[in-house]
Design goal:
single chain; 92 residues; Alpha-Beta Plaits; 2 helices; five-stranded mixed beta sheet; 5 strands; alpha+beta
Length: 92
């Protein structure tokens, strides 16, 4: 089965609580996962994730909770095209 990709927008108390660093750390548990995580101007966090469907679902589950000091109020995911130029997971 081909890899899938999602743009994910996470809202709540997700900036200033180590969300991006915790996401980077969590991504290392999923060998197929590639993409990035970044803060966006609206106080939300945006992630682009691509990889094996099972690993994506596990990462989406984690993103819906986040690290201990975060509070996730809403998560939106949009299916999108894979981006072959992305070969790692990073903070942007």
């Amino acid at each position: 089965m081909p890899d899938k990709a999602y743009n994910v927008r996470i809202s709540g108390r997700v900036t200033g609580v180590g969300f991006r660093w915790a996401t980077l750390d969590k991504s290392s548990e999923f060998p197929s996962l590639k993409g990035y995580v970044r803060n966006v101007g609206s106080g939300e966090v945006e992630a682009f994730i691509q990889g094996d469907e099972a690993e994506l679902e596990a990462m989406l589950q984690w993103l819906s909770v986040g690290p201990p000091f975060a509070r996730v109020d809403r998560i939106e995911k949009i299916s999108c095209q894979r981006r072959d130029e992305i070969s790692t997971f990073e903070i942007r």
